[in-house]
Amino acid sequence: MADGEGDPGVFTATALPGDPRLLPTVTNAFLGTRVFRDILHAAGVYSGAAGDTHRADVPSPLGLRMAAPGARSPAESFTLNTWTGTFSHTIQSPGYTATHQLYAHHSLVHLMAFSITIRRLDGSTHPITVQLQSLFVPQSQDLDLTPGPDFQGAHYIYGQTLVPEVEGGPRPTVHMLWTPIPQSLTLGGEERERCWEFLTAVAGSEEEAKRSYSAGLSLVAAGSLHGSHVRAWAALRRGCSVELDGPLALRQALHGCLYYLLSAIPPRDTPGVLFHGISPGGLSNGTRGEDYWGHVFWDQDTWMFPNILLLYPEAARAILQYRIRTLEGARRNAQEQGYEGAKFPWESAATGREVCPEEIYGAQEIHVTGDVLMAFEQYYCTTQDQKLFQEDGGWELVEAVARYWCSRMEWSDEEQLYHIRGVMPPDEYHSQVDNSAYTNAVARRSLNFATDMARDLLLPVPEEWEDHARKIKVPFDEERKYHPEYDGYSPGEPVKQADVVLLGFPLMHPMSAEVRRNDLEMYEPVTDPAGPAMTWSMFAVGWLELKELQRAQSQLEKCFSHITEPFKVWVENSDGSGAVNFLTGMGGFLQVVLFGFTGFRITRSGLLFDPALPDDVTKLKVSGVSYLGNKLEVTITREEIRMEVTETSWDPPASPLEAVLESGQRFPLWEGMA
């Protein structure tokens, strides 16, 4: 299966993968489906109570397949073009081509569309017919659907989810309009080429569904429906451009990751559209029993968020607003476990209440609360956006998390330190442990950020925040100079996934280069080789930090066993099990490029950089790095690092930047000057 003309952003095949889970997804911030699938999902629309909560299946008119009647073994090709955000299926028969294009409109987020184009290649004048094989039935196991009157030629159904997430809670409503789909399409004998366009609009209200459908029809009439999507998508890709000179497989992986992750975020200039978070398998997946049922984990805040923040802080803000909207549910979680403040759920859906089907994770994997707050800290350091905290609910969340951690700690008279007991660390092979190094370190970071944030907002700082942060135990072996994963950890014990190595990055827990190396050396050989995809990226970042380029490369290469052909869809585990379209693994991979190769580190005092390119990468260019209202273009080669301010905001005014070298030499960075 060759890839289109060597273009690293175009994935073409002559046959589809045997496993339909590995088909590519077409998604925007509100709608998503897998190609050729008979269901789609809408953001925030879940059905089922508590642990049964899952994305509600919405019947999809988009899941059809073209066929050429009478043609003997026509040549077929299937292409995912990450530059245009479009999937296409082409049938090449003697005398004509038929092309089916499918996309989720990037800027009209309530609209998905497909087109069928038949083009005559010879001088014949006979009609040409293409069959449309559809599995669409306007029914759902999760929605009580009722047909309504047609609207501007579209069929219409609407209905509510069957079971609310919490008793007495809301049951979201879905309204869907779609262009009726015939069983076949015919190019008349006198026609050379014709394109038929089909729209599907899905929204939470009849008014929005009709508005989106009408907007789509207007664009169809102007001949610019697909063009308007491509322009919006291309603008996003330009603003989040990451290019490197290196092996084709690495460049393809990079463009695949950017396509799938950027598909999940809201478009620019849509502040009124609520964002509902990103689940490990994205919006296209998450039906009952699939891809963690569409729930939101730490995967969003720790693994995906830093990349989005660096390239597109407005979308990062929307992710944080999802957490703010679910704060009340997090308060209830803490209260039910006997603690103060807010405890974010291990698995979150619409309300912030715990929806994990297995109680042990929700009860013990509490590091997620610190992971959420670390995303807020990274955002604040990158943007200095005080409005989020002062006016939009951010401070209430920060304060609630700090109160939770203080109430969750217990004082040890013996060690004269605070302990956090009975947890599951990121390494899920161990549970009910005391003083998980990662959990305690992220709790300390939460309290330090809450303290700093209070001072920036001129608010009083509770003494217990500083006291608990200063005196919390983070296990450390003075003899071996490494961090045991938890109290009683024995060197050599198997570990499921990246855990202690996260202390170095992204936590940036204070430690010497010797300790950082020892942590990597200790845990690399005992980490399960069948573990989840994001693990190896964090080992790669650690070795890049220490300028151990070969060791970094060997860890990065492990990621490729999680990338499936031909559409670069990631699987959680290398044996194909777990979540599919695994955005978590893609987020980890992108962090190797955006934070490992560049050495970027987000701190209160500045954006640090210390590049380290592996041997087979000769150049990296990242356009649209956002920092304090400025846009930077960063180019790294073996010989030099170039930084150019390409854009500065005026409302509010961007902070002037300067590059500071280790020698202390300072270089002001002005717009247009490298």
From TrEMBL:
InterPro entries: 6-hairpin_glycosidase_sf (IPR008928), 6hp_glycosidase-like_sf (IPR012341), Glyco_hydro_65_C (IPR005194), Glyco_hydro_65_M (IPR005195). It catalyses: (5R)-5-O-[alpha-D-glucosyl-(1->2)-beta-D-galactosyl]-5-hydroxy-L-lysyl-[collagen] + H2O = (5R)-5-O-(beta-D-galactosyl)-5-hydroxy-L-lysyl-[collagen] + D-glucose. GO terms for cellular component: cytosol. It is an enzyme of class 3 (hydrolase). One of its GO terms (molecular function) is protein-glucosylgalactosylhydroxylysine glucosidase activity. One of its GO terms (biological process) is carbohydrate metabolic process. Keywords: Glycosidase, Hydrolase. Its EC number is 3.2.1.107. It comes from the Eukaryota. Pfam families: Glyco_hydro_65C, Glyco_hydro_65m. Gene3D superfamilies: 1.50.10.10, Maltose phosphorylase, domain 3. Residues 284-490 form the Glycoside hydrolase family 65 central catalytic domain. Transmembrane segments: none annotated. Residues 601-647 form the Glycoside hydrolase family 65 C-terminal domain. PANTHER family: GLYCOSYL HYDROLASE-RELATED, PROTEIN-GLUCOSYLGALACTOSYLHYDROXYLYSINE GLUCOSIDASE. Catalyzes the hydrolysis of glucose from the disaccharide unit linked to hydroxylysine residues of collagen and collagen-like proteins. Belongs to the glycosyl hydrolase 65 family. This is Protein-glucosylgalactosylhydroxylysine glucosidase. It comes from Callaeas wilsoni (North Island kokako).
